[in-house]
Specification:
Layout (H helix, E strand, L loop, with lengths): L2 H8 L4 H25 L1 H8 L3 H23 L5 H24 L5 H34 L1
Helix pairs in contact: 1-2, 2-4, 2-6, 3-4, 5-6
Protein name: Integral membrane protein
Keywords: Membrane, Transmembrane, Transmembrane helix
Length: 143
């Protein structure tokens, strides 16, 4: 996925701004997901079939993680090592979601679909953040 295509999504051609926007969207989506798990664990347990205890734990983790990603997105120049850590965490989350679905979880059909959609979404965040980071690094090296 070339940076030029991402510029359309991010509504900017500046790689640093693009990176910050993708980090911010990741933080918002992840934070909303975490808060939903925290605030509606019971109903979501019944709908997704994954257990309210697991949802509460995931909700707490995701909410804290989202706050960290939001702080990183708020920086004018997010530190590359921290951005790489977010990318790696997102990739790890996507893979772990799929592994858990196959080996551990026994969700409802809605829960299985949700887990797959979540894994794809988080992998997409990792991909766009990676491309934006590379573009920002290339620009920094050209300056």
């Amino acid at each position: 996925m070339p940076a030029a295509r991402l510029a359309v999504l991010a509504r900017t051609t500046d790689p640093r701004t693009m990176l910050r926007r993708f980090l911010a969207v990741d933080a918002v989506v992840t934070g909303a997901n975490g808060l939903a798990y925290l605030l509606a664990a019971g109903p979501l347990d019944r709908f997704l079939g994954v257990g309210s205890g697991l949802l509460l734990g995931l909700g707490a983790f995701l909410t804290v993680y989202a706050a960290g990603v939001a702080l990183l997105a708020a920086r004018e120049r997010p530190a590359a090592p921290l951005v790489r850590a977010v990318i790696e965490a997102n990739l790890g989350w996507a893979v772990l979601s799929l592994v858990a679905l196959v080996l551990w979880l026994t969700p409802s059909t809605a829960g299985a679909v949700w887990t797959l959609l979540q894994a794809v979404t988080v992998a997409w965040f990792a991909a766009v953040q990676y491309v934006a980071l590379r573009a920002a690094d290339s620009r920094k090296n050209a300056d």
